[in-house]
Design goal:
By secondary structure, the chain is mainly beta. It is about 10% helix and about 30% strand. The protein has two helices and 13 strands. It has a five-stranded parallel sheet, with no helix packed on it. Strands 1-2-4-3 form a four-stranded mixed sheet, with no helix packed on it. The N terminus is likely disordered. Belongs to the RLP family.
Amino acid sequence: MMLGNNSHVLYFLGNSSYYPDKVKLTLKGQELEIVLMTILTSVDFSCNNFQGQIPHEIGDLNSLYIFNLSHNNFTGTIPTSLGKLKQLGSLDLSSNNLTGEIPKELTDLTFLSFLNLSYNNLVGAIPKDHQFQTFSADSYEGNARLCGFPLRAGCNSQTDEQNGVPGESEKKAGEIEWDYVSAVLGYIGL
């Protein structure tokens, strides 16, 4: 901590991941402004009946490790800005009224070890990149219009082509899905 000479501001010189809170104090007739730097690593607003869209500013909380907005009434799409939360290990947006596709930006969350997007109104193909190959079907259940691995519902060729994936009609009979095999092998540590 350091006391600024001119402005009488107490501040912390540190990581930009901190979020400032300011408090003004009067001590022996001298007014001081103390800036408290905090890191927000966990947000759990589950079961609160919140409504509206998930704010895209959540993506600016770059030290966030756990983010849970489950069992609310959020609407709209999943913000692509969540893909900026590089430290995120757990994301639970289940049991809301979210619509649209799962943003491909979420595949950039390489520390993500828990994902629950179940019981929303999500549509389209589940992204195939990175750790999304390791999440079980439970992460996506209750979204009738989602398709692709790990769900039983395969995507039709039109949906696949829109997402840059060869359609089922373009795959050869008996062709091995090496993406799935490598994900399983990576998961079991072979």
